[in-house]
Write a structure and sequence with these properties.
By secondary structure, this protein is an all-beta fold. Helices cover about 0% and strands about 65% of the residues. It has no helices and six strands. The relative contact order is 0.25.
Length: about 110
């Protein structure tokens, strides 16, 4: 796994969830871009399941970032018009230089980004 800066060629957005009051007084979940980062993005594994007779694919991805304080499991990543749930992340080299985030493509098709 090469962690060099030159491999971080993909721009990704880290999204923060916020609740916004809607027209009828309820709360609507929206996502705002907290920061845009460079990352090394790799698809790692794929599985599928049947939902209502349709085949649904699930792909796990690894995102490698320079160490930063923006990542946690409550946030999402937007990459190439797709959304990813952060499942886990950890320090790759124990020196605090690189973070590996394990993500799955989000199953929620109605993500609103403001």
């Amino acid at each position: 796994m090469n962690k060099t800066i030159g491999k971080m060629r993909n721009r990704v957005d880290v999204l923060q969830k916020s609740l916004v009051r809607n027209d009828i007084g309820g709360m609507t979940e929206t996502w705002t871009v907290e920061v845009t980062l460079w990352a090394n993005v790799n698809a790692k594994s794929a599985t599928y399941s049947l939902q209502n007779g349709d085949k649904v694919n699930y792909v796990k991805y690894e995102f490698i970032f320079r160490d930063n304080s923006y990542l946690n499991e409550k946030k999402k990543i937007r990459f190439d018009s797709r959304f990813f749930d952060i499942k886990d992340f950890h320090n790759l080299d124990e020196r605090g230089r690189f973070i590996l985030a394990i993500c799955e493509q989000s199953k929620n098709a109605t993500i609103v980004v403001s």
